Amino acid sequence: MFDLAVNELLVSGMLLSFIALLFLGVPVVWSLAGVSFGTALIALGLHHYAGADTHFLDSWRDYSIIVPRIWSIVENGVLVALPLFVFMGLMLDQSGLAETLMREFAATLGRFSGGLAVAVILIGILLAASTGIVGASVVLLTTVAMPIMLEQGYDRRLAAGVIASAGTLGILIPPSIMLIIMADQLALSVGELFMGALVPGILLGLSYLVYVVAAVSLNPALAPRPANVTPLTARGLLRTFLAVMPPLGLMVAVLGSIFAGIATPTEAAGIGALGATLLAFANGRLSLTVLYEVARRTTLTTSFIFGIFIGATAFALVMRALGGDDIIAAGLHSIPFGSTGVVVTILIFAFIAGFFLDWLEITLIFLPLVGPVVIGDLGYDPIWFVILFSVALQTSFITPPVGFSLFYLKGAAPSEVTTPEIYKGIIPFVIIQLLIVVLIISRPEVVTWLPQLVYD
Amino acid sequence: MPHLVEDRPTAGHSHLVGSPPLLSRLIDRAIRFISVTAHLSWLVLIVVIISNVVLRYVLADSSVALEEWQWHLYGYGFMVGIAYCLVEDQHVRVDVLSEHWSPRRRAWVDLLAMFILIMPFAFVIARDSIPFVEFSHQLNEVSRSPGGLSHRWIIKAVIPFSMALVFLAALSRALLMIKIILESPSVQKGTPNV
Amino acid sequence: ASAEEVQELKWAVPISFSSNLTALGDTLPWVAEQLKNASGGKIEFEVFEPNKMIPALSVFESTATGQIEVGYSWMGYERGQVPASALFGATPFGLEPAQFIAWMYQADGNALLQELFEPYNVHPILCGVISPEAAGWFKFPIETVEQLAGLKFRAAGLGGEIMKEVGMSVTVLPGGELYQALETGVLDATEFSLPTVDEQLGFYQVAKYYHLPGWHQPSTSQYLYISGDVWDDLNKTTQSLIETSCMAGVTYAMARAEALQGAVLNSFEDKGVTAEQLPEEVLQKFRDATEVVMTREAEADPMFAKIYGSMMAFKAENASWHALGYLPRDWAWDNASKPE
Ligand code: NA
Ligand code: NA
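Structure tokens for the assembled complex are given below, as produced in the milestone run.
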């Protein structure tokens, strides 16, 4: 009886000490890595000196499995695009083009209340449909748009909320790495999942738009118009057009090369990085110093993201070796409600887990456990369930304390934007996501209509 | 210059000390020097990818070796960069509570984090990854893909290399924290956050 | 000597293919169930899905370095470390499933397998053989040899080497980019697995020409990798129970793979997929290139030469029986059951 509780205690202890360390201000990556190490040490001590049953964590070599796990992160080329999009974003910024773009957007769209926020959401949807790499989207939007929004006097919470949520759309709107991994986990067709995600994804983006427009019209102080609004002239429009052309051209080249089948997302990211460099050159802003600075800051942004991956892989290994999966599964099987109750409980669980774990861990730990129950035993439509689950999981990016989009944002934003402001700013967007979850439950055709249209 | 990802001490205490201890400075300088290769890896990566695209569309050819260079460069870049992030104090924190703390208290938290959380982890992973690299070296491991790269152990060695750098970076930062704790009088309490 | 009791074992067993993949990934969970039942619950294999504990491609490495006691994988992922291992996973123009188990169980196959892995302190046990894979999903039909030049194809392993040899543009895109690359046309074609698995993953949605046969993979074999020390510590009863269960696993996988392909293949027509064999001349071209590549591999590695030699000698000896003993393969085609 006592033995049974040891690994359960250790698993709960892991989660609690991780959260405690986070709030002590210890960087995320070292909280994850350190907790995994400390827990392993305690578990092995209990196993060897007190004979405790620590599930599969019974020797030091079990912990060393972290090494091949780190290796598989290095070897997995799917994320090569990430540093390249970071590079592109930083270079666009250095070239002055991003600034001009946003300034002109500010001059044209900025005359409308919330115009910049609307622009950010639209660009967010475009990025989502091309790269799907949340880290890169959030960093790009933050470096490009945040300074200008702040300069124009935007409410910092609104600016942070819009950028973090718009930058996260990429995980749902296809192509999506998350859906690819889920398809792999449950042996489903990627194409059907992509089609299923399209309508909810765009609906989500549009809901953000509606919210921003509504919020700003109720409280114009959230997004003040620029002080010197000049009348909209043909010349002004032309200037905006000219400012928009180069970065827009780059965006079209990047997205177009993916859609036209010339390049994979990785290659398109490489083309984007080169294109941004050429634009900087054409703008007379490229020097060796600038090139080096952009590369150096690419290292900083990329490595802090991958550092978290490594911490997370160490954390997940220890949790699984301790039987964390079984503990979750046992909990699921004891849910007393009917089939809808099980689905809702799973979603609530995914949502709450999303406060502390990232989507990848939840997908790998949780989905293989609940998928067969919901799809096989209860007979729900697999595409519907996976998309529902994905929208619930998408919130994990933007819910504190462990929200990757919030980290990316915080990492790339001017230091005047504080963590509490980011946390407050994101709340309305989390609520919108939950409303979409409710919509999908009550109207499944939001998901199922398009895949049926295309593939049946 | 427009705003970029800042090099900003998130824990906000470097302005308190004239200069870090000598050993810290040496370690930091060495890691910054090594990290230049990580920065350059992104530039090479762009060149390699463009070559790949050109090869396929202009010359209707492909090179698996060139494709593999992509993740070699990126793996090297981000693994080495982890220690660099530590040196530049760029790792993301949840500073909800710590924002209101004195630099001295934050230095204590950082010091303990270095000694308890980072250094043992980095040490153990560095140590345990050496047999992993040796195994690859003994077997003369090459790519499993047609026409892929050989000498796999070299890129695998980036794991112990990176973790050793992280260990050193943590040591350097721990020494700095000790200096801050010893030198900063409690008067500094309430210094506004940067 | 008195009969030894079955030992109590509780092992975490990582696998390389998701157990949701029909016939490809569901064999080991079945074997685990049989072991549990046959041992009266004493032998417990807790199956760990790919990447949950160790990465999908690291089963051999992790067993050899002692990080895990046991794992289950397609043999060939370790081709970069043990080149000859690829022959035990799938040999281009090699042995069909029945021939393969004949060579393994009744000829030199298993002895050579143990010889190959002995230096790494790993004891592999054949534990699943499946029907031929398909040649791949193509955006357009392959009708002539000329179309192969520059054809953008995603393939790994020995098959990939041979495709390179015939002038195809072989890439190794990460699995996650595969579907999209095929959809947008970055790739002209890709190989994947059996019709059942291909259907599950929906490749028919983005490429409408399904070519067979899987010349590069006439049979596909998976193995239980057990650390040598761990294996030696087991008593005879336990060893025998594991070996027998794996042999049953081979039968289970062969039956399951063979049973399910027909129905799925027949359903492709409704999905707008044209399924047909590669033209004779194209297959011949691959066959010629296979000679070149296999000779090159054999020159580079004596174990490869030895194993491939044994396999081909067996194939040659068996050839007369294979040709005369069975109805001609096109027999059914000239009669009632030909499709269309
Ligand atoms: Na996307
Ligand atoms: Na979260």
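Chain C has a mean pLDDT of 91. Chain C is about 45% helix and 15% strand. Further analysis is deferred to the final report.
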